[in-house]
Amino acid sequence: MEDLAGSETLRVLLIVNSFASSVTARSMVVINKAFSADHDVELVETSRRGHATRLALGAANEGYDVVVVMGGDGTLNEAANGLIGTDTALATLPGGSTNVFARQIGLPNDPIEATSVLLDALAAESIRPVGLGSVDGRCFLFHTGLGFDAAVVEQVERRASLKRYAGHPLFVYAGFATWLRHYDHSRPRMAVRLGDGQIVDDAYMTIVLNTSPYTYLGNRGLDLTPEATLDNGLSVVVIRTMDFAKTLALVGSGIGSGRHLRSSRHALVAHDLDRIEIIGHGDFPYQVDGDFLGYTGSLTFEHRPDSLHLVVPV
């Protein structure tokens, strides 16, 4: 980001999803005022799915230096897809119920505290290129879930009005409800082909990660693949069983060292991949950065290094 070197006042577009779980009218005013003290700021609110992508792309075309997103991970993903390959940097403020990516890069989970950290980062010109994952042309910041993981997100989105109030308990409830009533776990759902030609044809659930943790349970990160970072290729976790106890043990091991997951014959974990192909045994659900996108019969993943400029804490 050579254009920012030596800059004192930046052009900043602040994109706000006012429907996100943690966004309030007061926080919008306080944060806008804080950024405006040092920078030229315009605040815009999203109004529909995909709106943040168009707003971010427009900001890049108009020469804005930074796009700051206050919303959930889905809104952040949309904005990132609008900034890929441009000179405009992306910054995030936690505004959703989980805020996975903001917490992954070290921001406080309180949006006003995070604002102070971002302003310090901009003052220090702490902006660096990072790699993203791409699935059938759509990029993701932290992960894409296929199979059971995505079916849980689908159930959460059907109860979207509760996310502001329930948050993590809603995900727990959706997980059990999906297991009992909303997902066919009687048979494998997909085959996974890695770049070296290795094939796993009995996958029940697959998670492709661009960074870690995979998600947060309260304040605790769930580290399925600590090796996944913004500087490496993609990581993949393939779950080859839907036995309740075995699956819970595999995923739950991420709260600790994750050793059980990486050594189990019921799972495959691989790292630093440039390409992954998924072929469904019929259609399967998938979600991208926590945003449910529907059902498909196949997906192709690629790693796109240094494709986005990101504001990171000092």
What does this structure look like?
- The protein has 314 residues and is of the alpha+beta class.
- The protein folds into two domains: 2-125, Probable inorganic polyphosphate/atp-NAD kinase, domain 1 (Rossmann fold); 138-303, Tumour Suppressor Smad4, CATH 2.60.200.
- The protein is 30% helix and 35% strand.
- It has helices at residues 25-36, 51-61, 73-83, 100-104, 111-123, 148-157, 163-166, 168-182, 244-252, 259-263; strands at 11-16, 40-45, 66-71, 89-94, 127-135, 138-140, 143-147, 190-194, 199-203, 205-209, 215-217, 220-222, 234-239, 267-273, 275-288, 291-311.
- The strands form three sheets. Strands 5, 6, 7, 8, 9, 10, 13, 14, 15 and 16 form a ten-stranded antiparallel β-sheet that branches.
- Strand 5 and strand 6 (138-140) form a beta hairpin.
- Helix 1 packs parallel to helix 5, helix 2 (51-61) runs parallel beside helix 3 and helix 6 (148-157) packs across helix 8.
- The chain starts with 10 loop residues before the first strand and ends with a strand.
- 47% of the residues are buried.
Identify the quaternary structure here: single chain
Mean pLDDT: 90
Give unreliable regions as ranges: none
Tally of structural domains: 2
**Overall CATH class of the largest domain:** Mainly Beta
Helix count equals: 10
Topology-level CATH name of the largest domain: Tumour Suppressor Smad4
Largest sheet entry: 10 strands, antiparallel
| Rg (CA only) | 19 Å
Task: Note the overall shape.
Answer: globular
CATH architecture of the largest domain: Sandwich
The separation of the N and C termini measures 16 Å
Query: What share of residues is helical?
Result: 25-40%
Number of strands: 16
**Percentage of β-strand residues:** 35-45%
**What structural category characterises the helix and strand content?**
alpha+beta
Element-by-element helix/strand order: EHEHEHEHHEEEHHHEEEEEEHHEEE
